[in-house]
Amino acid sequence: MNLYKKLLEYSKEGIYPMHMPGHKRNVEMASMINPYSLDITEIEGFDNLHSANEILLEGMNRAAYLYGSSYTNYLVGGSTAGILAGIASCTKKGDKVIVARNSHKSVYNAIYLNELKPVYVYPKQIDSFGINGDISTDDVKDLLEKNPDAKLIIITSPTYEGILSDIKSISELSHRYGVPLLVDEAHGAHLGFHKDFPDNSIKAGADIVIHSLHKTLPAFTQTGLIHINSKLISYETVKRYLSIYQTSSPSYLLMASIEQCITLLERESMELFTSFFNELDMFHQRMGQLKYIKIMNKDDVSRIGCFDFEPSKLTISVKDTNINGNKLYNLLLNEYNIQMEMVSDNYVLGMTSICDTHEGFIRLGNALLDIDATLKNYLKNYDIYNNNRNSLSSNFKKEIYPEIIISSYEAIEKESNMVKLSESMDHIAAEYIYLYPPGIPLLVPGEQISNQMISDITNFLKNGLTVHGLYEGQNIKVVS
Length: 480
Hints:
Helix content: 25-40%
Distance between the termini: 43 Å
Structural class: alpha/beta
CATH topology of the largest domain: Aspartate Aminotransferase, domain 2
């Protein structure tokens, strides 16, 4: 069976997508005729993305106006291309940058490619769900004072689970120091279109903002936008790096998908987001019946002092019950035909969008209520079970996280060899180790491997999670 046939068969299996892309395969909301009849290259009358001055420029100007940015460019290589180009545009080889430790792998690849020196700012922790919280403005200020030579601040907001940092305060702070702020807002392209959703980072004053349209809006996979909003940033330099990190033959189908999405938002955003928020609100109210499964909400985020939360993400926790995240994930898939976005140790993540259906929310709610009722039957073993559980965490605590010994560039370029994960303590990592999704490195090349990290990775594997970067036989690449 080839991929095309497999995709066709999968589309008929009735599995509901609580995952990206944001179009949710909802052909009533977004559709195209046979794509082969539309697929072209740079021919007369259709402009060129890398020197746009006609129809593509018009479309990008419409996107800029919609989002409120000074300049906007299409991304056909996902947010990854925008992050690589954005970071390269603001730095020179060997520069120091302040980076949120819960950044996506593409940020670390940019650090490697430009031989940058990262200074990490660590997010708060939401221990009740085992996830990362927001980035403190005070922590950023402290690092700016200690590192006056920093050339760029890089923050992810919202996080994979929907936690937002106070970008307005951080951008005001960064501008007082004359340092541009780049926000990886890949998961927030839908923000700012309705009063019940937070504003986006463009309105909050960030200098560069990167959006993945395909994550939370109806657009094809790997489509995105990069927004430039500051005199601290050279738009011409950004375009030059985009021409390096994006293909010289960008897909007109992908760009048409971006424009279809923009047109939909221009015409119907208020109606669509009002309906979407009402569905989310009804879902959360109904899930108030759950006894053991917990779904994170704005009150949970506020209680620990995080800045804000956007409601489209469903972080569904089974922490302190007798099943783990992997069990819940497989139950939803195999018993209820619901494909979730990701699984972690204690929770699963669902991604929703304006293209989700009422039936989809009802179906997920019914499944969770059914599963929650079965957990009640196991509570007689609750104390024994929890006393023997490993407490896992895929988040980042400064006091326990591996020490940076050498730069990622040095670690990757040096000679390396394989050792057993169980025997790797005190070695220097030569490869990224990460759970995917979300693609946030647990270990970065150049970091010293701690006993805690070995234990965490081992427990992730035992709990059925997919750990990328390990080699056959649970070997890990280390600097020789």
